[in-house]
Design goal:
By secondary structure, this protein is of the alpha/beta class. About 40% of the residues lie in helices and about 15% in strands. The chain folds into 2 domains: about 70 residues, Double Stranded RNA Binding Domain; about 80 residues, Orthogonal Bundle (Arc Repressor Mutant, subunit A). A hairpin with a 2-residue loop joins strand 1 and strand 2. The protein starts with 9 loop residues before the first helix and ends with a helix.
C-alpha cells in the first residue's frame, strides 16, 4: 500500500514548526493571517473546557481550548486523563464546564458512528514534540477505511529506521479517533496495540470497512 497524503495547511505547518510553544505558534500564525476558525465566545486564551460526550460506542472525555480540541479519551479510558492533560500542558488555565462548546465534536462523533461522516473537520490544538506532531499529522492523512503499518508511516515522514519511535508517538496520540491511530497496524497485518483495547480497534476498523464497501 502506498501512502497518499494531501498538502499541509498553514495551521498544520505551524504546528509542526513550533510544536507545543503556543505563544510562539499563535504569534507566527497571527502574523501570517491564519484564521482561528469556529470557537465559542466564552473561551479565553487561558481557559479550557472539560466535558464528556456520549456516543453509541460509549462516553468520550474531551478537553477544548480556544484553538481547538486538545484531548479526546476513549470510552475504555478514565476521564481523569483529561484532567491530567490539563495539569501537564496548561496547569494555570481556568477550567470550565461544557456549555455547548463541545457541540461540534459531539455532532461529528455522532455522524461518524451513524456512517454519515468520514472526515472530521473539528479544529485541533495538539501539544507534543515536533516528532510526535509529524507522526500525528501523518495519521490524519490515512484515508477512511484504509490502514497503514508503522513502517509505512516511518517511511513517509522520512525516518524509515524510526519504526519503534513511530509506534510510541502513535500510542501517545492525545485525540483518539479524530487522529486515527486505530488505522495503524503491524507490518504482518496484526492489529498490535491500542489504548482502547484490541476489541475497540477491531470494531472501529470493521465500521469503516462496512461504510467503505
Amino acid at each position: 500500500m502506498r501512502l497518499s497524503f494531501d498538502s499541509l495547511t498553514e495551521d498544520e505547518i505551524a504546528q509542526a514548526k513550533y510544536g507545543s510553544d503556543t505563544a510562539t505558534r499563535s504569534a507566527a500564525m497571527a502574523s501570517s493571517g491564519t484564521a482561528s476558525g469556529r470557537r465559542c465566545a466564552s473561551l479565553g486564551p487561558e481557559s479550557l473546557v472539560l466535558g464528556s460526550i456520549d456516543t453509541p460506542a460509549g462516553t468520550y472525555g474531551a478537553v477544548l481550548s480556544v484553538r481547538g480540541l486538545c484531548r479526546l479519551t476513549l470510552p475504555t479510558e478514565p476521564q481523569a486523563l483529561c484532567q491530567a492533560w490539563a495539569d501537564r500542558w496548561l496547569p494555570r488555565a481556568k477550567r470550565l464546564p461544557d456549555q455547548g462548546d463541545l457541540t461540534q465534536v459531539a455532532e461529528e462523533l455522532a455522524a461518524y458512528f451513524a456512517g454519515r461522516l468520514r472526515t472530521f473537520s473539528v479544529e485541533l490544538d495538539l501539544r507534543g514534540t515536533p516528532f510526535q506532531l509529524q507522526v500525528w499529522e501523518a495519521l490524519r492523512r490515512i484515508p477512511f477505511g484504509e490502514v497503514r503499518s508503522y513502517a509505512q508511516i516511518a517511511q513517509y515522514i522520512g525516518r524509515p529506521q524510526a519504526v519503534r519511535a513511530v509506534g510510541a508517538a502513535n500510542g501517545a496520540n492525545p485525540v483518539a479517533l479524530i487522529v486515527p491511530c486505530h488505522r495503524v497496524i503491524g507490518s504482518g497485518g496484526d492489529l498490535v496495540g491500542y489504548a482502547g483495547g484490541l476489541a475497540m480497534k477491531r470494531s472501529l476498523l470493521e465500521h469503516e470497512r462496512r461504510q467503505s464497501a
